Amino acid sequence: VFFHNALPFVGFGFLDNAIMIAAGTQIELSIGVVLGISTMAGNTFFSSLFPPPAAALGNLVSDLAGLGLAGYVEALASRLGLSIPDLTPKQADMWQTRLSAHLGKAIGVTIGCILGMFPLLFFGEEEEKLEEK
């Protein structure tokens, strides 16, 4: 149950973070420069409560892509041999089963999000050039 729930969420977390970082950076470097919005909108208390516009728009793009890609991620997980656990209705309703499913999703999305940060390896130079301007 844990792995059945974790594997698709690794894929989801990976795609979500990778798309959000790439989209947010591109928004900041293109539209953001023109409109004066930034992912680095200051270190004030107000900016910590509300995401900067480029980050928020990157998150929007990522969420919309996630809606379209969710079925593909699940299909890929099933192609990798991830079978649905054969549980009785009573077993599926046990607290241990629900806990395993939730932990699998939480740990899966955490691992996926960490792996999905790989675009940050490519954006160091663009950020420095943007700060210089």
TrEMBL record:
GO biological process: cardiac ventricle development; regulation of cardiac conduction
Keyword annotations from UniProtKB, A to Z: Membrane, Transmembrane, Transmembrane helix
Compartments where located: Membrane
Membrane protein topology class: Multi-pass membrane protein
Chain ranges passing through the membrane: 103-123
GO cellular component: membrane; mitochondrion
Keyword flag Protein transport: no
Keyword S-adenosyl-L-methionine: no
Chief localisation class: membrane
Protein name (record): TMM65 protein
Gene from which the chain derives: Tmem65
